[in-house]
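User: Please fill in residues for this 156-position structure.
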């Protein structure tokens, strides 16, 4: 199973649509904030996809949670935008929050910098930003051999 992970689209619904179209096997899409209106604009075009969305620091008047948990393929996923955990200053707080929740994977955005690390049983995954000058996104394959995360950098 493939899960698509995007963040920080910042009004670029076109890029979001393009990425979703490029990943037809990804039936689950996480949007990690700062662009949830972009999801609202295009989600009806993808009725066979399931969207999980959290709000970011630029999602004003958003009616989405700031954090949430999902279990996919027996893996607990904690997802958030990241600003409440000061991820621009380090990953300690978000890693602690994920571990407190018993998560196997933590998904976050906010920094606009892609990151894929494995630390003591926890995957830390930031897909970067689709709305930045160096756009990127990520996906995670859940396979019989385990979790296989991947960052994809887009050409401009």
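Assistant: Residues filled in for all 156 positions:
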């Amino acid at each position: 199973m493939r899960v698509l992970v995007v963040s920080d689209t910042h009004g670029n619904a076109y890029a979001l649509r393009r990425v979703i179209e490029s990943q037809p096997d990804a039936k689950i899409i996480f949007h990690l904030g700062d662009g949830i209106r972009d999801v609202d604009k295009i989600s009806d075009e993808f009725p066979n996809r399931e969207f999980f969305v959290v709000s970011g620091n630029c999602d004003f008047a958003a009616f989405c949670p700031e954090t949430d948990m999902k279990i996919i393929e027996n893996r607990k996923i904690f997802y958030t935008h990241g600003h409440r955990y000061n991820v621009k200053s380090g990953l300690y707080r978000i890693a602690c929050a994920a571990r407190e929740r018993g998560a196997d994977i933590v998904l976050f955005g906010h920094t606009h910098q892609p990151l894929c690390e494995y630390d003591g049983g926890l995957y830390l995954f930031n897909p970067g930003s689709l709305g930045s000058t160096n756009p990127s996104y990520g996906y995670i394959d859940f396979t019989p051999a385990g979790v296989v995360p991947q960052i994809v950098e887009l050409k401009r």
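For context: The domain at 2-153 is CATH 3.60.21.10 (Purple Acid Phosphatase; chain A, domain 2).
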